[in-house]
Design brief:
Blueprint (H helix, E strand, L loop, with lengths): L1 H17 L5 H47 L2 E2 L7 E2 L3 H8 L1 H32 L6 H14 L3 H10 L5 H8 L14 H11 L2 H12 L3 H9 L4 H29 L3 H6 L13 H11 L3 H29 L5
Antiparallel strand pairs: 1-2
Helix pairs in contact: 3-14, 4-8, 4-9, 4-11, 4-13, 5-9, 9-11, 11-14, 13-14
Length: 327
């Protein structure tokens, strides 16, 4: 009986070892090793993310919070600041130049953005036809988007539309007397609208990528049914591209509201003639770094943030009525 029990015990031990089960101490060591490795990986990830978090705190979040605080103060960048509460925001109600800047900026956004997107879509459809050297054309058309916001191009634009610029030289060849386009209050803003439309490269590339994702069978089926090219464009291309149109619309509206360099260079930093190119960002710069009224400029910056946020929110709310997704 004892031998039987002894044999059974040995068999049980042999079975346990045969299943590969580890003793409790070995399991604890393995768990501790895995926990140590996981902690090491977390620390390594934080180490790599550290510079990004540092930049977020020092370059973005910190100045953002400081701007919010200074918007409630009287601060001239040199002396001490003084808390004034909502006084800076109340000044905006009676600031006629701010109202003029808002009007100029809204006209610029509402005119230039639709024209830019229309131009981008038209050229994207031309390039989608499978032209030879497509990569070259795409690069050439994208180049203005990289250069359009530069100081050099703004200076060139001022020369092209000047009284003795290239535009007037071409008009003079046909016997037409041109204007000083950038120095005339009725046309100065129009030259900046043309400059923004000229930077259609980025949305064009995005449109081209969207067109490549539309299945060809839709156009083939519509052609078999006798649909004209215009009807195919309106009933197939536009609905299938609405997510891309929405993306470009939101992005370009945000960019247009923040336009500064072109207006600053073309007008010489004045917003002239007669404040016809006084963009909101240019007037903000004048108040903050020209008049050293940084408290008021900070309040203006937060008003601009609220305006852009409001337009973005409206676009997202309205998108459910005209944007169609595949699902």
């Amino acid at each position: 009986m004892t031998a039987l029990l002894h044999g059974k015990t040995e068999a049980g031990t042999a079975d346990d070892s045969g299943t590969g089960a580890k003793p409790p101490r070995t399991r604890r060591k393995a768990a501790a090793s895995r926990g140590g490795n996981r902690r090491y990986e977390n620390l390594a990830a934080l180490g790599f993310l550290g510079p990004w978090f540092l930049g977020l705190a020092l370059i973005t979040a910190g100045p953002l919070m400081a701007s919010l605080y200074f918007s409630f103060t009287d601060y001239n960048l040199i002396g001490d600041h003084q808390w004034v509460g909502l006084e800076n925001y109340e000044r905006m109600v009676t600031d006629t130049r701010l109202h003029s800047a808002l009007k100029v900026t809204f006209v610029y956004v509402f005119v230039s953005v639709p024209l830019q997107l229309a131009m981008a879509l038209a050229l994207a459809m031309v390039l989608d036809r499978g032209l030879r050297g497509l990569a070259l054309y795409r690069s050439v058309y994208y180049l203005p988007s990289l250069l359009g916001g530069s100081v050099a191009v703004a200076i060139l634009w001022r020369q092209v539309f000047g009284a003795n610029g290239l535009i007037n030289q071409v008009l003079a060849f046909f016997g037409i007397q041109g204007e000083g386009w950038v120095s005339h209050p009725d046309y100065a803003l129009g030259t900046l609208v043309i400059l923004n439309v000229w930077t259609f490269g980025a949305p064009m590339v995005i449109f081209l990528a969207g067109l490549r994702q539309i299945p060809a069978m839709y156009y083939e089926a519509a052609a078999v049914d006798g649909a004209s090219p215009l009807r195919r464009f309106w009933h197939i291309t536009i609905p299938m591209l609405t997510p891309i149109i929405f993306f470009n619309l939101v992005l370009q509206i945000i960019n247009a509201f923040q336009t500064f360099t072109q207006a600053f260079i073309v007008s010489g930093g004045t917003g002239g003639p007669s404040d016809s190119t006084l963009f909101y960002t240019l007037y903000l710069y004048q108040r903050g770094f020209g008049a050293f009224d940084m408290g008021y400029a900070s309040a203006m910056a937060w008003l601009l943030l609220m305006i852009i946020g409001g337009f973005t929110a409206v676009n997202f709310l309205a998108s459910k009525f005209w944007v169609f997704y595949g699902d």
